[in-house]
Write a structure and sequence with these properties.
It is built from 17 helices and no strands. With about 270 residues, it is mainly alpha-helical. The chain has 2 domains: about 80 residues, no CATH class; about 160 residues, Hypothetical protein af1432 (Orthogonal Bundle).
Length: about 270
C-alpha cells in the first residue's frame, strides 16, 4: 500500500476504556475539576489527538497554533469535551487493533510522552509540545495495522511493533514508516508545523533539510522506552544508543537514562489504567 492511500483512509483511534469512564464521570459533576480532566486526556493518545484536531480546525481560526491539551481546553471549553468523550465512548466497541497489544501500546506511548517532556526541558524546547509529540508519535503504527492487513502482519512476525529496529524495517519494506504516517495525519489535522516536522523526522532526525530539535527529543525518548520494552542489558543499551542524535542535542547516554519523568497520570486509589 502507498502512503497516500493509507493517509486517505478513515479510521478511529481506540481510546483507553478506563480513561473514558473516568472522564465521563468527572464531566457529570456540577463543577468538573479542569486539572483532572487535563490529566485524564493527557494519558490517552486518541483523546489528545481528537482534542488537538478540533482545536486546530479552521473553525476556531487558530490552525497550527495549539500544541497541547492545556491550550486546547482553554480554547474549547467543557461542552466540546463532553461531546468528544461521548463520541469516544460510542466508538469503544472498535477498540481492538489486529497485531497490537493496546494495553502495552498505551503504556509505552505515555512513557515516551513523559520522557520527551523531561528531555525537552533539558534542551530548552517546548515541553508541552514534546509531551504531545511523544504521546501521539506512533499513532501511525495503529493506522498501519488497521489499514494494511496481511502486509503489516507479515512484518510483525519478523519484527514486533515496538522493536528498536521497527521504523527501519518498515521503511525498507514499505518505503515509509509509522513516523511518516503519524506526520501525514498530523498535517491533515492542521497540527502545528513543529509537531508535524518532529513526527515526520523522528526516525531519522537531523538527516534532512528540516532542523527540528523536537524530532531528536522524540527519537531519544523512543529509544529509551523501546529499550525498556525489550529489557535490554546495560551493555546492549550502550551499543544501541543513538549517539549521533545525542551529540547534536548535547545529551549523552547517562543524561538520557538519568531523566526521571514526572508522572502526569491521574492516581486513582486501587485502580490503574494499564
Amino acid at each position: 500500500m502507498e502512503l497516500r492511500t493509507l493517509l486517505a483512509s478513515q479510521f478511529v483511534l481506540p481510546s483507553i476504556p478506563k480513561v473514558i469512564a473516568l472522564l465521563l464521570t468527572e464531566l457529570k459533576h456540577s463543577e468538573p475539576d479542569l486539572k483532572k480532566i487535563t490529566q485524564l486526556i493527557s494519558t490517552d493518545p486518541a483523546l489528545t489527538t481528537r482534542l488537538l484536531r478540533l482545536s486546530n480546525s479552521r473553525f476556531f481560526k487558530l490552525s497550527g497554533k495549539i500544541n497541547s491539551v492545556t491550550e486546547a481546553l482553554a480554547l474549547l471549553g467543557l461542552d466540546h469535551v463532553r461531546t468528544m468523550a461521548n463520541e469516544a465512548a460510542s466508538a469503544a466497541s472498535f477498540k481492538a487493533v489486529p497485531g497490537i497489544n493496546l494495553q502495552q501500546f498505551w503504556s509505552y506511548s505515555l512513557n515516551v510522552a513523559k520522557l520527551s517532556r523531561s528531555l525537552a526541558g533539558v534542551v530548552r524546547q517546548n515541553q508541552q509540545a514534546a509531551f504531545t509529540c511523544g504521546l501521539i508519535h506512533a499513532v501511525g503504527e495503529l493506522a498501519m495495522h488497521m489499514g494494511m492487513g496481511e502486509e503489516i502482519a507479515a512484518l510483525d512476525r519478523e519484527i514486533p511493533p515496538l522493536d528498536l529496529l521497527r521504523a527501519k524495517a518498515e521503511k525498507k519494506t514499505f518505503g515509509f514508516s509509522y513516523a511518516q504516517v503519524s506526520a501525514g495525519f498530523a498535517y491533515h489535522w492542521q497540527f502545528p508545523q513543529p509537531i508535524v516536522d518532529a513526527l515526520k523526522h523522528q526516525d531519522e532526525p537531523f538527516e534532512h533539510d528540516v532542523y527540528e530539535p523536537l524530532a531528536g527529543v522524540i527519537h531519544l525518548a523512543t529509544w529509551r522506552a523501546r529499550a525498556k520494552e525489550a529489557d535490554l542489558s546495560d551493555k546492549a543499551m550502550a551499543v544501541t544508543f543513538p549517539g549521533s542524535v545525542g551529540e547534536v542535542l548535547e545529551l549523552d547516554i547517562d543524561m538520557v537514562l538519568q531523566q526521571d519523568p514526572i508522572d502526569w497520570s491521574v492516581q486513582v486509589p486501587g485502580r490503574s489504567f494499564f
